[in-house]
């Protein structure tokens, strides 16, 4: 019974001495839905035996017995383990309990078991068969016909089936058969255990605050290890769990509060490979951006993640090198509710891939914001504090920039790109006008000495045109991108029944942001770049760096996961550099730019065929479906063996199959010349 087997593997725990703990769903907390499935299965398996009564033993057998009795419309009797004072006329049999290591009696009133009955006995476990033998005895005493016995779980290695057969039970059914409980492993008959996919498990992890698993573990930090895997630091993850024993990891797993089933912490930890990069060789991530020394390239993006002193101070303490503070303006800002909406799969609520916001600018009074920036710079002198500003007139732009300089800010970012401003002459409309961005940049440049960094809107065909206008006006660097104009249709994101176009950000926008960065990096002026858009992991950040950014900013990922993602941004980038033997981050800046060509210059004479790993393939047939309906009908699916086969003469090497295969069973062969 598949659902039962899955549940045992997910929620069952193997204890010392051959004990299987199933108290999450069978014999303490009960899952009624599973119990119903159990009863349906028993009903099917004993349908031909025509029972007239369901018999069980208190207490764990009662739930499946009642369900079965209900479905088969039969009375249910349970044998008591103690004689009630009100019961005088009864059958009794003595039984040895395996789990409790003591004898007890089974008692049934003569009123409820008689020679007219055709009895079907059901119970939660078949172990040594002692209870079953007691039931055989009771039926014999009553002259009842025992037509069979059904068990939810059978521990085959304790040989109860043999004992019952010898006692004369002809029909025995067990819905899940355990072959062995060894080394804390549950070995189920007929079940090939799928190796844990550590990324799948790390993605399921809820990334809990003050994680219960870590608290229960005591010798390590499994929650931190899972977070490292989730944020692309698989190998270094071992450092947080290397001293944990299996017992520690099992405790951690039992403490896991995942709402479906616990993260398979022990198996995940056992699957982490030893790191082949020595962390004593990790380089410093220091880099110069716009002439400013930064301890690493990771900054908070101007947004909801940095709207007051405490937030930025916390981020600095966590390891962020700098902040582009929430955009300051002179207008009164009043936000709507709800302010946000998100796009996610139904299965991954809480983990969205795209994020829409209607937030405008800082709601604080201007003086208060500059005072915050002044205090931040004073309290964290090695961190980089950049004011983001937005004016409505040249005078406002100049005034705000001067205030930023006076507050001790290291640079000023000009927000030419907010897509949801309600005020005229502000936001991404300005960012589309070369004339306006040129004149605002020029007037700010003329009023301050600190670097000036215009922030570009992606809501434009050629981002290089306004960027060029800014550079002509003396901009010291360009940052990109702000959010992308978008519409989402969820009714619970409406504002009193109304909607508006507003900015989209997060994981989904990264390829678009990278395209804009590439075009900016390819400009003849080779501007200094700060990259923004969908950065979550160090690998995402590296992509921006390799396309020419010497600084990267993060907003949505911090909103989702917190400032703590900096740990893995730093760790992963350092490890990558150590592995490549790169000492200076600057060496990576723009290293992938030469790879980009126009489409007409790409090689069209060679091909890479997909390769199928028969072991990893589970036979879902998705590759065949996609290749048939969205490719070149180059995959044949054998419905007998449930395995795909490639027809080389039809395959065009598009790799759709590889991208949709849910198990990663499709990889690549060598590139060869097309026939
Ligand atoms: C809630 C929210 C508020 C934002 N506020 C500002 C802002 O005040 N000034 C600004 O320049 N960009 C603002 N942005 C845009 C971000 O700085 C960033 O450019 C964009 O979200 C893309 O990065 P991400 O994918 O890491 O979020 C905001 C974004 C969000 C989601
Ligand atoms: S308790 Fe479970 S869900 Fe929470 S952090 Fe630990 S493993 Fe993840
Ligand atoms: S999509 Fe992957 S797992 Fe499914 S049949 Fe094809 S190769 Fe096998």
From TrEMBL:
InterPro entries: 4Fe4S_Fe-S-bd, 4Fe4S_Fe_S_CS, Aldolase_TIM, Dihydroorotate_DH_cat, PRTase-like, PRTase_dom, Xanthine_PRibTrfase. GO terms for cellular component: cytoplasm. Pathway: Purine metabolism; XMP biosynthesis via salvage pathway; XMP from xanthine: step 1/1. Xanthine binds at residues 20, 27, 155. SUPFAM superfamilies: 4Fe-4S ferredoxins (SSF54862), FMN-linked oxidoreductases (SSF51395), PRTase-like (SSF53271). Its EC number is 2.4.2.22. 5-phospho-alpha-D-ribose 1-diphosphate binds at residues 127-131. One of its GO terms (biological process) is purine ribonucleoside salvage. It is found in: Cytoplasm. Residues 608-640, 642-671 form the 4Fe-4S ferredoxin-type domain. It catalyses: XMP + diphosphate = xanthine + 5-phospho-alpha-D-ribose 1-diphosphate; 5,6-dihydrothymine + NAD(+) = thymine + NADH + H(+); 5,6-dihydrouracil + NAD(+) = uracil + NADH + H(+). The keyword Iron-sulfur applies. It holds the Pfam family DHO_dh. Converts the preformed base xanthine, a product of nucleic acid breakdown, to xanthosine 5'-monophosphate (XMP), so it can be reused for RNA or DNA synthesis. Belongs to the purine/pyrimidine phosphoribosyltransferase family. Xpt subfamily. Belongs to the dihydropyrimidine dehydrogenase family. This is Xanthine phosphoribosyltransferase. It comes from Xylanibacter ruminicola (Prevotella ruminicola). The gene is xpt.
